[in-house]
Amino acid sequence: MTGRIAFQGELGAYGHQACTEAQPGMEPLPCPTFEDAIDAVRRGEAQLGMIAVENSTYGRVADVHQLLPESGLHITGEAFVRVHINVLGPRGARLDGLRRVRAMDILFGQARGFLREQGLETLKWADNAAAAREVATLNDPAEGAMGSELAAQVYGLDVLARHVEDHDRNTTRFLMMARDLDLRRRGKGPMMTSFVFRVRNIPAALFKAMGGFATNGINMTKLESYMVGGNFTATQFYAEVEGHPDDRAMQLAFEELDYFTDHLRLMGVFPADQRRYEVARG
């Protein structure tokens, strides 16, 4: 695919890495926030958006699942990026000379053991690549950043320590989003279907709504809830299941789901990334 693909962060961010690995033929478009990346796709400035949704160590990325249903976009694919966390410093700096490192809080949460062992101060930054750029600008051997090797290349930094993440399979999952929903594709492997819904205000509605997937032999890989509009009684669910909406089993499951919900929206249909199962096997 050609065109531009928007991601949150600056050049050298893990989102940039995801774009180059999953869509090497597209031009990466850095955006300050996830909202900006989504807006770029909505406005036609980019054909795809690469949105981080969860990390195998840290958990889900805050607020993203609330952004997705309101974005007006559709999920067209997923990408799993092996997140190697590296300590970056100015040319000639040494690890034992660092006093502090900069990074997003989510990255610190993936390298707690290393940070504790080294006794480094941490400065929370809005973006990992921006932290690397700041270290390059300061050019102080006591100031470092944590990020990708791509960031080191972009900003001319040395890698002072490689792969300092706590878990050796540390992986971030990204969703690729576009303006149009495409139901024609059929991957060689399993297909994934994602949707959001709200259950009717009746006893055991969620249990009954999910029952159709179990009775029709459909594997549900994700079910997450979050409040809507600041109301404790209004709960929306984001779900992902294995299968395609045209499959007979899926049609039956959705008929039952529709009966117990007062809002249901298909978010996307896309081939499962093979790395999904590699991460699950550990």
TrEMBL record:
<dbReference type="InterPro" id="IPR002912">
    <property type="entry name" value="ACT_dom"/>
</dbReference>
<comment type="pathway">
    <text>Amino-acid biosynthesis; L-phenylalanine biosynthesis; phenylpyruvate from prephenate: step 1/1.</text>
</comment>
<dbReference type="GO" id="GO:0005737">
    <property type="term" value="C:cytoplasm"/>
</dbReference>
<protein>
    <recommendedName>
        <fullName>prephenate dehydratase</fullName>
        <ecNumber>4.2.1.51</ecNumber>
    </recommendedName>
</protein>
<keyword id="KW-0584">Phenylalanine biosynthesis</keyword>
<keyword id="KW-0057">Aromatic amino acid biosynthesis</keyword>
<feature type="domain" description="Prephenate dehydratase">
    <location>
        <begin position="4"/>
        <end position="179"/>
    </location>
</feature>
<dbReference type="GO" id="GO:0004664">
    <property type="term" value="F:prephenate dehydratase activity"/>
</dbReference>
<dbReference type="GO" id="GO:0009094">
    <property type="term" value="P:L-phenylalanine biosynthetic process"/>
</dbReference>
<dbReference type="InterPro" id="IPR001086">
    <property type="entry name" value="Preph_deHydtase"/>
</dbReference>
<dbReference type="Pfam" id="PF00800">
    <property type="entry name" value="PDT"/>
</dbReference>
<dbReference type="InterPro" id="IPR008242">
    <property type="entry name" value="Chor_mutase/pphenate_deHydtase"/>
</dbReference>
<feature type="site" description="Essential for prephenate dehydratase activity">
    <location>
        <position position="172"/>
    </location>
</feature>
<keyword id="KW-0028">Amino-acid biosynthesis</keyword>
<dbReference type="InterPro" id="IPR045865">
    <property type="entry name" value="ACT-like_dom_sf"/>
</dbReference>
<feature type="domain" description="ACT">
    <location>
        <begin position="194"/>
        <end position="271"/>
    </location>
</feature>
<dbReference type="InterPro" id="IPR018528">
    <property type="entry name" value="Preph_deHydtase_CS"/>
</dbReference>
<keyword id="KW-0456">Lyase</keyword>
